[in-house]
Amino acid sequence: MxxxxxxxxxxxxxxxxxREEALAVLATSDDELLDVVAAAGKVRRQWFGRRVKxxxxxxxxxxxxxxxxxxxxxxxGSKAEILKYTWLKPDDASKAAAAGVAGGAKRVCLVASGxxxxxxxxxxxxxxxxxxxxxxxxxxxxxxxxxLSDGQAERLRxxxxxxxxxxxNTSEATYGDICxxxxxSDRVSTVQQAQAAGMSACSGLIAGMxxxxxxxxxxxFALRELDPDSVPVNFLIPFEGTPLAKEWNLTPQRALRILxxxxxxxxxxEVRLAGGREVHLRSMQPLALHLVNSLFLGDYLxxxxxxxxxxxxxxxxxxFEVEGTxxxxxxxxxxxxCGGAQPAADAAEAPAATVPAPSDExxxxxxAVRRRGAGxxxxxxx
Length: 382
What we know:
Elements: H1 2-13, H2 19-26, H3 33-48, E1 51-61, H4 90-102, E2 107-112, H5 119-135, E3 140-144, H6 152-159, E4 163-165, H7 175-178, H8 184-196, E5 200-202, E6 205-207, H9 213-226, E7 230-235, H10 252-265, E8 270-273, H11 277-280, H12 285-288, E9 294-296, H13 308-317, E10 321-322, H14 332-335
Parallel strand pairs: 1-2, 1-9, 1-10, 2-3, 3-4, 4-5, 6-7, 7-8, 8-9
Helix pairs in contact: 1-3, 2-9, 2-10, 3-10, 4-5, 5-6, 9-10
């Protein structure tokens, strides 16, 4: 396909595709899927070889969030029967993190529900970061605490936080459809605060919320403009008890096309396979490794993931290798501060796109509420 040859050439040169080209990737047929994966795989291998970075989530505070994000099981008014607990003590959080590191994780992601942290919360997380770094040499720590107030990003950086995560989730045009308690610009501002404080920015999206192809392209191009170092791609987990419980819009094939599009738009950025991969990619998860260079090991915030040992076996069986702490994830030109992808020569106006038809067969049996690890007496999955 001329389209794929063009996209590979651009990816190898770090040149952005046009919106029209990104939309065309999402519009490819199932018969073309392996060609799409192979093409995006060339770009992935150019910048990241066959390495896979493992990340491990620790949910520091679960549930009872005052925000109304429709996709979230921890949202205001959620009836999802998830674990609910207040802040973990630093030692308990450090023990949970150690399990992930022992399982092969290079980065620990500390997440807390809520609109944003108080100054006391920042102190608490700072203690947790110190405890984790003292016990795990070389591990990266990413904080994800919501919207940041003035000075908080700098305090987290001083405490040892290497990165900060705050996802854009969907396009600016449709953000008000999934959340009314804050807006798209609040999220952009938080990512920019983290960057200004010297932390590595991590910001991604959620696919499968009923968005159009144009929405997906919009949010990925917005992310590319922000230029984070890592882009997590989540696939909606339709928890019963949330407003989006009936949004089963994804197939494994569509999920792979979305990942390929993200890779073409973000050729030299860490693209992370995040929540919902087990639910929507299912047995096609190994193919996704040809598109992404990073994934979450084990469980997620409120749902269970694939067994950690199965993640490791999947990576090895697919011919990839776990990235060690002695290896730097990003290509040298990004580490040196020389910038990421180059702007496209032109950007075509996006054609109208429609919401994909829901799948005929939903797999609600694959949505398992987390009952182990942080906040419980049971050992974590790592």
